Every structure is written in structure tokens, then in C-alpha cells.
Amino acid sequence: MPKMKSNKSARKRYRVTKSGRVRRSRAGKSHLMSSFRGKRVRQLRRPAFVSKSEEKTARRMLLVD
User: Does domain 8-62 have CATH number 4.10.410.60?
Assistant: First the structure.
């Protein structure tokens, strides 16, 4: 039987940390940033974690046990 393929779009969006949590980048920071305050822009730079309800789906797409 051939190997399972991981979801390529999920591989580009998510990364699994050493502790096993799924990390994602924040949305809404590609353009039109001048309307945001500096604090908001700095907060958007930091990565976020996938919610507990979505974590199982993300891990399945990444083929992580």
C-alpha cells in the first residue's frame, strides 16, 4: 500500500510544536495595515494556536499522531 500524503495546503499553514500543539499564523496582515494601531500590528506578528476543536482536523491533515 502506498504512503499516505499529507495535505499540502495544511503543511504551508500549520506547524506542530515540540509540545504537540498546532501553531498557525494570524490572518489580516497582508495589506491595509495603516488603519491598525502599532500595538495591533505587533500582536498580529506573533503566531497563534489552533483552537482545540480544530486541532484534531489539523493534525489529521498533517498526518501527525
Answer: yes
